Amino acid sequence: MADINNTKIILSTGRGNGLVATQDSKADNILILIRKPYIVLPDKASLGKICSWCLLPTPSYSASTVIDSKTIGSSAGNKAQATTALQRCSGCRVSQYCSAACQRADWKSIHSKECALLAALLDVPPTPVRALMRILISHRFGLAWDPRWARLEGHMDEMRNSEKWADALLQAKAAVSFARVAPSYLELAIAVLCRIHCNAFRATLLNTTPIGLCFEPTLALANHSCTPNAYVAFEGRNIMLRALVPVKKDEELFISYIDANRSYHDRKLELFRTYWFQCNCSRCEAHSDANDRNDERLIEAKRM
Hints:
Layout: E1 4-5, E2 7-12, E3 16-21, E4 30-34, E5 39-42, H1 59-65, H2 75-78, E6 87-88, E7 96-97, H3 100-119, H4 127-140, H5 156-160, H6 165-178, H7 186-199, E8 201-204, E9 210-215, E10 223-224, E11 230-235, E12 238-243, E13 254-255, H8 264-275, H9 282-287, H10 290-293, H11 296-303
Helix pairs in contact: 4-6, 4-7, 6-7, 8-11
């Protein structure tokens, strides 16, 4: 089954780049389906539970998380809902696979270049660092280099002036060192990492259990709303943008970057602290008043 893209990129007023539908869609219809996301990998906590390539769970983990049987007929969906027992890569002892086929696929894709680098480390790096390592390694070895990340907002200036900067700089330096690229790559590493922090999705099982990180520049162009009309879903390695409600052709597509069920004040604070913007969707605008603008927690967040 081929990738699907029933969207196009627009310049959204006051929001930068965005996505609109190119056709009418019913609720739950697939708007975008990408089978090979730019970067997708399990987080450290999921390495022993999820195949590092197909991202399907082991039987014991599947049973404990109650996997939904709904699929879209992909190669991942046609497999059993849970993988067999995982086998560690004998080289790095970090990546784990449900089959020889998955191990070969990952080896061919990127793992042949990162295996020895991971093996040399005392511990598994944080997930954003491993994601950044893969991008730097791809650049180092002349593998597929995706320029789409450059059009994403990274809020580097805001990050630089926040308490998050020291940690981001440390992670970027670690990735440059671990990937064994030249120190001159640090500026590029910081630029990419800032975009990962602002645009990466949390990879999940079908039942939304979080298992890792996905950095896919096309889907990351979807803007936020607290009343979204679309949502991001995963099926193994596949990442999808699906309609949450019926969507008309040329209608802008919005997802919620946060839990939209939270209170107005909590949403406002989380969006500012994590993504550096204040939402002006119809739901938030209807709630705004002078007291909201004087929210002490938001004032404090701006100082961070």
